[in-house]
Write the structure tokens for this entry.
Amino acid sequence: MQKSLAVSSSPHLRHKASTQRIMQEVCLALAPAGIAGIILFGANAAALIATCVITCVLAEFAYQKLTKQKTTIGDWSAVVTGLLLAYNLPANAPLWLAVVGSLIAIVLVKQIFGGIGSNFMNPALTARAILFVSWSALMSTYPQTKYAVDAVSAATPLALMAEGAVEGVKLWDLAIGNCGGVLGETCKLAIILGGLYMLLRGIIDWRIPVTFIGTVFVCYLLKDGAEMAVYQIFAGGLMLGAFFMATDYATSPVTNIGKIIFGVGCGILLFVIRAFASYPEGCSFAILFMNVATPMIDKFTTPKVFGEVKNRG
């Protein structure tokens, strides 16, 4: 029997590196933010990172064994999910919350939909959103860093700016992470270092992070001026989301124009949530909304196959 061949429309994605190598590179790029989080918040931050990573790996292994699938923990994608989830938790979160979040991310979001590359929403962000809805008090209480005067709890810079207390926010503190926030988002210098590493290594495309961050900057520049625009891109989870979560291969568009639309959409949604909603941060929800819109973006931005005849039904 003659073997039939199917030719799909471009773009045909190729990458010289294996999935394992790409995930290892992402882990390396995430390392500075994790190290900074441990330095800033202490031993519980390290425990949260270890708990999330170990639980994610074990959950993936157990699910695939129970369902008689080939085990894929060797591709390191579960490790990346664990790191990203840990970075999205307050540094004083209880370890059981990290375990629950890890199970949600791996089993409910990733594996049930077919494993790596098949999930339509970012697993770590989806888990964070579910944890926030279910245990909002635990997910919105942030410890101050070890180097601040108040070592018990801290308002995030975004919360302070939303209340008009901009004078209480220093740009240098935002850069080095000496402020309230989740474990992995506070030290912007560490995040930028990791993001630049991935860009230089060709692991991520520049279009999504640049248009995401740039759109937020332009929106606030037009609304509140240059100073507030700079503070807004350094505050909250924008940097972490733009470099490490919006660029997720499985949940972002494949075409160049699609990536730009995706980044701009994330930026506009984040601006609307921060500027006009009661919740001062909206990075997770902006990315998740655009994750859902990704199939539609791909549909309208993927070039048609030359000579393809439209099915008139």
Observations:
- The first helix runs from residue 19 to 41.
- Residues 19-300 form a domain with the Ammonium transporter fold fold (CATH 1.10.3430).
- Confidence is low (pLDDT under 50) at residues 1-14.
